[in-house]
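To fix ideas, we reproduce below a protein record of this kind.
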Amino acid sequence: MALGGKTQRGNKRGGQQPNHIVSCVDNDGFCISQKLVGDKTNEIKVIPELLGDINIKGHIVTTDAMGCQKDIAAIIARRRADYVLALKGNQGNLYEDVKLYFDDAELLKNCAYRKTVEKARWQIEVREYWQTNDISWLAQKKDWAKLKTIAMTRTP
């Protein structure tokens, strides 16, 4: 199940802001739930509400960096699901620690590795992936419910 926010185009009228919606899409691409993000809030506040409306038990929930929040991870874990969260600079120290780990060529040798090459959008796209369960060193591990692994994607 993928969670993501989108601003709807073409629905802005007068001084009104366009609608911003957070949706949950299943593995077949069908939207199974969505919530409107209010003018005075953001996706971080709406994602927990959305997760409360659907049965996620036994599923893997994915989201972008906006949804990479400790509270959201805890909700997903309590609802007996797993998660894959995109980690970027919004999680300061955690991001820096994970980046330092994957910047170490020696440590990369111990990671699971996969490379994909595919034609998409009229070009050849190459992606490299590294993943490790070796996170005992990660100081923030205890703050993230059910954190089991870290991974990196690189598009050269």
Remarks:
- The longest helix spans residues 92-103.
- The mean pLDDT is 91.
